[in-house]
Structures are given as structure tokens and as C-alpha cells.
Design a protein that fits this description.
It contains 7 helices and no strands. By secondary structure, the chain is mainly alpha-helical.
Length: 181
């Protein structure tokens, strides 16, 4: 009887414990930092709808032109993202995380100084490129530092982005009103 062999029983009983000990722990500080980065990058994208009424009035734009600004931002931040994903798969480009936050922030930050409609669209495209560049490398890095807790870590990472999208409009309204008032 193979089941009555004590050595076989001990090896089976210890195996689950050994697997649990060898599990990779998530790097919680890096997950937190990546969630913060996701928050910041998505604040830039979430801020765009809040500044549209000011831009419309400042440049006497039509609703069609305002819609084109939104389209430019959404297309740029999404359509080009697979290209950045492909590049991220080829080689780690972690430097793109801080650079893309800067690019997206500069794009949305300078929209109020744009001399005309074309400048606004160009800066929104710059913002969209920063957003598009950040996400693939951000998700890849979050997955790498998540250890065996990928679902939990990526949930925190995603929460950062969702809160950023939600906080973007009221934050931008506060900044614009404070800056012009």
C-alpha cells in the first residue's frame, strides 16, 4: 500500500507549505507609487472636459470645434497606445513613466496659453501622447512588481487611475477659477 508509507505522506503534507513560502511578495511601495502615477496621468485626461467651457469662450469656438478637441484627445490617448505597448514589449522603457507624466501635464497645463484653436488641438494631442505612452509601461511594471498578488496589486493600480479621472474635473475647475479670479 502506497498510502501507508509515512515518508510519502510527509512529502505530500509539506509540499503546499513549501510552495507558500516560495511565493513572491508584492512590492507594495512600488505599487503605491505606480497607483499615484496612474492617478496623476489620469488627472490630466480627466481635466480636459472641465477646461472646455473656458476654452470655448476664450477662443469663441463652436460646439463642433470643442467636440473635435475631445476627439483629438481621446483618439490620441487610445489609438496610439498599442504602438507604445509594442515598444514596451520589446524592451523595458521605465524612463517613459516620469517623462510621459511630464508630457501629459505640460500638454494640459499649456492649453490655457494656446494662441488659437490649432494650438489647443496640438497641446491636447501632446497630452494624449503622454497618456498613451504611460499606460502600457505602467501596467507592465505594476504586473512585474505585483509578485503573486497580481489581482490585488493591479486593483490598487487601477484605483489610482479611476480616482484620477474622477478628481480631474473638480481639481481643474478649482485651479482655473483660482487662477483667473
Amino acid at each position: 500500500m502506497a498510502d501507508s508509507n509515512p515518508a510519502a505522506y510527509e512529502a505530500t503534507a509539506v509540499a503546499p507549505f513549501a510552495v507558500a513560502v516560495q511565493r513572491a511578495r508584492p512590492h507594495t511601495k512600488l505599487i503605491g507609487l505606480l497607483a499615484l502615477g496612474h492617478f496623476v496621468i489620469d488627472v490630466t485626461q480627466g481635466s480636459l472636459p472641465a477646461v472646455l467651457p473656458f476654452i470655448k469662450q476664450m477662443h469663441a469656438l463652436s460646439y463642433a470645434q470643442v467636440a473635435m478637441i475631445v476627439l483629438a484627445g481621446n483618439l490620441t490617448s487610445s489609438i496610439i497606445q498599442p504602438v507604445f505597448g509594442y515598444l514596451s514589449d520589446q524592451i523595458a522603457r521605465r524612463w517613459i513613466l516620469p517623462v510621459s507624466v511630464f508630457v501629459a501635464g505640460a500638454g494640459i497645463g499649456l492649453v490655457g496659453l494656446a494662441p488659437g484653436y490649432g494650438g489647443v488641438v496640438a497641446l491636447v494631442v501632446v497630452m494624449g501622447l503622454g497618456v498613451a505612452a504611460w499606460h502600457p509601461e505602467g501596467y507592465k511594471t505594476a504586473t512585474v512588481v505585483a509578485g503573486d498578488r497580481k489581482a490585488t496589486a493591479l486593483s490598487w493600480f487601477s484605483l489610482g487611475g479611476n480616482v484620477g479621472i474622477a478628481v480631474g474635473p473638480p481639481l481643474m475647475i478649482f485651479l482655473v477659477v483660482r487662477g483667473t479670479g
